[in-house]
Each structure stands twice: as C-alpha cells, then as structure tokens.
C-alpha cells in the first residue's frame, strides 16, 4: 500500500503516507456500508447523490476518520455536512467540506445543533464514547436515523489507577429513540465489498491523493532514542488527552 501511494503521490513524505490507509479505508467503509450512501467509482461526470442535501453530522470532525470522511463526502457531492470539533479546527474542517462547525465542549452543543439542524438522519461518531459522544448524539436522532459509531465504545476512560472499559456493542450504550439504527463500524469487513476489495487501496485512494482531492492528516512526529521509547512517548501523549487534529507518528527503524 505505501509503495503504491508513494509511487503515485511523490510529493508526500512517508510520515504523511502512514496516516492514510486504515482511516481512509474506514471512512469509505463507514459511508458506504454503515450509512448506506452511494459512492460510485469511477464517479460519473456531474454526479449528484440521491441524498445530497440531507444533513450529515461528523462528530469528531478533527479526528483522522473525521477529516477523511469530510473529504470523501464533499468529493461525492454531499453538501450539507456539519462537524463538531474544537474551535481551533473549525476553519480547516470547513476547507475540507463542512458547512457548519460546532464546539463539542460547549454545554449547549446539543441544543444548538438541534435548533439549527433539527433531527439528524445521518451521523458518524468518530470517537465512540458512551458519555462523551453517544449520549449527546442520541438526543439528536429520531426514527429512521442511521448512526455509525467507531468501535470499541469507550465505556470508562482510563486513569492512572484504573484500566479503561470498552464495549463492542452500541445499542445498549445510549437511550436511542425507537427506529434509530445504531451500527458499530467494523472496518475489516470492507473486503466484503468487491469494489473496495479490488480497487480501494490499489486505485481509488492513490488517485484521490494524486489529484489533491484528499489530503493526508496533519501529523506530529514523536521522538525518542529507541523504538520502545518512541512508542511509550506516543502512548503517554495520547493518554494525556492533548492530541487534537493530528496523527501521532514515530519511526520504527532505529536509523
């Protein structure tokens, strides 16, 4: 995959390329399989998707999956995409395809989204947290809505004293309204889609990158004297909760 990407997109560094495969695949799989939205390849000239004007909420728009989902949806003509993120990321997310952004830390965020957008038919939860995302999202959906949730769901975050708790089941983790279809995203099943199996990583992704339709995630390079030290530094930073809008990248080779 990296060889194909770098051979077709020579302007990208390896640090950028490694942010791509798993989460860009996840974005395609989530949009197509879990939300059920058509994303044909090749995209027909002048293509307008059947649900182009319906609101799509990306909760966690500054996450890696969120950034790729915004760009893929924009490319296919979905034009009513909104996102939640820290205010410092709002401008960038709008450049990727969001028409509105909301601060997920604002205590009135659910009220504000509901007031401006009404009940939302399509949602991607890029975080998957019982209290942090599923609880507010469940207040924004009604019968017929589809919610795609990244797994595993964080039931309880880790602390210095306690290990985290996770769940692979989404329906019992929030008070969903009757008729809401909540789905846990399982990216490894993307190979069941024959188009994705044959062309997603070998043709579709390199083409979108080479043509500038999709931009790699921003990244932060983690330093350390050894592989173990670099990995531990990255894990410590991730656990600190200070990572925002970027992927953590570190060298595997010592030289």
Topology (SSEs and partners):
Layout: H1 2-8, H2 14-17, H3 21-34, E1 56-59, H4 64-75, E2 81-84, H5 90-96, E3 100-102, H6 109-117, E4 122-125, H7 130-138, E5 146-150, E6 153-156, E7 165-167, E8 181-185, H8 194-210, E9 219-221, H9 227-240, E10 247-249
Parallel strand pairs: 1-2, 1-4, 2-3, 4-5, 5-8, 9-10
Antiparallel strand pairs: 6-7
Question: Keyphrases for this structure?
Answer:
255 residues, alpha/beta, Rossmann fold, six-stranded parallel sheet, two-stranded antiparallel sheet, globular
Give structural notes.
This protein is of the alpha/beta class and 255 residues long. The protein is built from nine helices and ten strands. Helix 3 packs across helix 4 (64-75) and helix 3 (21-34) crosses helix 8 (194-210). The protein is globular. The mean pLDDT is 90.
* CATH-derived architecture of the largest domain: 3-Layer(aba) Sandwich
The CATH class label of the largest domain is Alpha Beta
Q: Give the overall average pLDDT.
A: 90
Number of strands: 10
Distance between the termini: 22 Å
Proportion in β-strands = 5-15%
CATH topology of the largest domain: Rossmann fold
Oligomer: single chain
Organism: Friedmanniomyces endolithicus
GO molecular function: oxidoreductase activity, acting on NAD(P)H
Keywords: Oxidoreductase
InterPro entries: NAD(P)-bd_dom_sf, Trans-enoyl_RdTase-like
